[in-house]
Amino acid sequence: MFKLAHLSDVHLGPLPPASLRQLACKRFIGLMSWRYRRRAIHNMDVLNRLVTDIKQVGVDHIAFTGDLANISLPEEFTNGQRWLGELGHPDKVSYVPGNHDAYVAFPWEEGLAKWGDYMVGDLNLPGVRMSGNVAALFPYVRQRRNVALIGVSSAVPAPWNKAWGHVGQRQLNALADILKKLHNKGFYRIVMIHHPPLPGLAKDRKALQDAQDMKRVLESNGVELVLHGHNHEHMHNKLETETGMAHIIGVPSASAVKTEKRPAAAWYQFAIERRGGMWENNMTIRSLADAGDEMVTQSQLCLDRSD
Ligand SMILES: [Fe+2]
Ligand SMILES: [Fe+2]
Questions:
Q1: What is the rounded average pLDDT of the residues 83-107?
Q2: 274: CA distance to ligand 1 center in Å?
Q3: How far are the Cα atoms of 65, 113, 128, 170 from residue 120, in angstroms, in the given order?
Q4: pLDDT, tens digit, for every residue of 152-167?
Q5: What do you get for the CA distance between the two ends of the chain, in Å?
Q6: Largest CA distance in the chain
């Protein structure tokens, strides 16, 4: 059995100090949003409790679907690197970036390269994570026993009032090929992407722009599980594909206190195994209790089998 934890949207705080030059335009608006709204939602004690819970339960691998940063300041990537180091070894943690990790156009070496060890595929050359050549990095594939984790990047800088994502034709073509090959080899395929991958799952200004194309690739090549974040909500959608039913799962923010609009922090555990020629995946939702002082099992569900 392979045990996988899924968490997302850490929005690590507090924000480091920033110069006036760094705060030009969109970052300044993001800073105000952090100070007057988001700071009260993303609580680092809650985050610590959630990570401790993952470690106590014990999993083989952690899938983290983006938004570790807030406004993509250089120091946020340094702080994020330290935080990822405490979360787990790069071989056991797979990351895909979110829109807050690409908040403004920003040199790769000063930003996402610092988390590159967590986004590099098994077959990528070691230097690729430092190159800034996103085209060479994504989609990446990590094979762990009979499970394959496929990391897709939807993180692109967007105008100040937008939080959309974009995958692009090159990644979509590569993804189609990867899904086909992994199916032929008998892998359980898990796609990781920050934005919800199907049309209509997010407001236009926050949505994946090429969700329709993404849906077509998933439908025609098949996938067992897609993990995403971004909406900071519990989400479970299904998609009929050429190779059976796919489950599309979104988790709340890993650091969130409960608000009127959004649920409290949660992580999902997937226990995946092959039994009698069929895949079985038992999902457990661990979330922050209403009292806010402990993590509890909120629900358990056996996801439909597929061939
Ligand atoms: Fe987020
Ligand atoms: Fe996001």
A1: 95
A2: 33
A3: 14, 10, 8, 18
A4: 999 999 998 999 999 9
A5: 17
A6: 61
Residue 66 C-alpha to ligand 2 middle, in angstroms?
Answer: 7
CA of 232 to the centre of ligand 2 (A): 8
What DSSP designation does 244 have?
A: E
92 CA to centre of ligand 2 in angstroms: 23
170: amino acid identity, one letter: R
| Distance in Å, CA 168 to ligand 2 centroid | 18
Nearest in space to 281 (alpha carbons), one of 299, 306, 298: 306
Of all ligands present, the nearest one to the C-alpha of 262 is 1
| Average pLDDT of the chain, as a whole number | 94
- Distance (angstroms) between ligand 2 centre and the Cα of 191 equals 17
Looking at all shown ligands, the one closest to residue 158's CA atom is 2
Structure tokens, 94: 């797979």
Q: Is residue 239 within 8 Å of residue 215, measured between CB atoms?
A: yes
If you measure from the C-alpha of residue 252 to the centroid of ligand 1, how many angstroms do you get, rounded to a whole number? 9
Alpha-carbon distance 264 to 99, whole Å? 21
List for the chain the helix, strand, coil content (%; round to 5): 30, 25, 40
Distance 273 CA to ligand 1 centre (A): 30
Report the alpha-carbon distance of residue 243 to residue 264 in Å, rounded: 34
| Ligand 2 geometric centre to CA of 62 (Å) | 18
Q: Which of 76, 35, 40 is nearest to 253 (CA)?
A: 40
What is the identity of the amino acid at 99? N
Three-state DSSP class for 279? strand
Q: Which runs of E-coded beta strand occur in 39-171?
A: 61-64, 93-95, 140-144, 147-151
Ligand nearest to the CA of 155: 2
pLDDT tens, residue by residue, 258-287: 999 999 999 999 999 999 889 999 999 999
pTM: 0.97
